[in-house]
Structures are given as C-alpha cells and as structure tokens.
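Quarterly update from the structural biology core.
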Amino acid sequence: MSISIEITEASTSVLASGTATTLEVFNTAIPSVAITASTVASTAYGSVTATNIQDAIEQLADQNFRQAAAPTGATVSEGDTWYDTDDDEFKVYREISTGVFAWAPIMIGTPPGDSDIVDAGAF
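Predicted structure, tokenized:
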C-alpha cells in the first residue's frame, strides 16, 4: 500500500491519500493560534446581531429557556420563550399592558385566564 502526497508551488492545501497514521508538514503557514468559535466570523442575520460563531450561539441560547423558575435578568427580552418544567407550560415573554412585560402561557385551544391562543394569526 502506498501513500501519495500532492503539493504544488502555490498550494493552499495538502492532499494525502492512502492509509496514514502520521503526516508531518514542515515550512507551512499554519495558524499559530487555535481556531475557536469566537475567532470564526459570521454575518449578522435576523435577530442575531453577533459577528462571530460563539457570540451567535450565545445570543440564540439567551432567547430560549428550559427550567423550573421563570428566567430573569438582562438576557430576557420581548419574544423570548420559556418552557416551565414545573408546570409543563410553554410561555413567551411579552408586553401584557403598556410598559409591563411578563411570561404569558401559550396554548392551543380556548385560553383560560391570561393564556394566548396559537392560531397562526388572521387570514
């Protein structure tokens, strides 16, 4: 069995074929820093304004919660969702009256109390 390696003068990659357990590369431009999610650029899109992968993942994680206690703090904002694991209810953080925000349960069917109906809006 043979292993072949192809490198050209203006090569930006190395192709190794066959079964290799070790590949040694000398005099190449390999980044001296580890590539992490925070160093990989991303384009802001929709509600995600982050410009790197790590911040984008954190921003998405800060919009959805699964826990027993109601989420609070600076990361909670209008439109966030929370699955209340104690009461088995799905809730959305929304303005319930002018300037007042709260976690409102969402349900399918007839709402008891302050629940919202998931009905796909008006047509």
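The mean pLDDT is 78.
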